[in-house]
Design a protein that fits this description.
It is a single chain. The protein is mainly beta and about 100 residues long. The chain has one domain. Helices cover about 0% and strands about 50% of the residues. The chain is built from no helices and seven strands. Strands 4-5-6-7 form a four-stranded antiparallel sheet, with no helix packed on it. A three-stranded antiparallel sheet has the order 1-2-3, with no helix packed on it. It starts with 6 loop residues before the first strand and ends with a strand. This is CAZy families CBM16 protein.
Amino acid sequence: FDERGRLWVAELIVYPNEGVAREPQPLSRIRVLEDRDRDGTFESATIFAEKLRVPNSVLPYRGGAIVCDAPEIVYFEDRDADGKSDRRTVLYSGFDL
């Protein structure tokens, strides 16, 4: 959850199939679920980042999210505050799959 109470979810589309990291076109994504009226049910689900390989962790951080998407750790930033990532910065690379 982030400071606004939104739930960030890593959707692994092809997992646990073999060859996840070698998929020709990565299909996984990060979604942000929001309960706008605070009744315990999410009213919106926004795709924040897509075309990911194997996003196995997501940490909301400074208007974006740090995602472990092996073989990289990436910071996805929402610079224009539209709820979707518009900048991708690799923080670390080198996990061997």
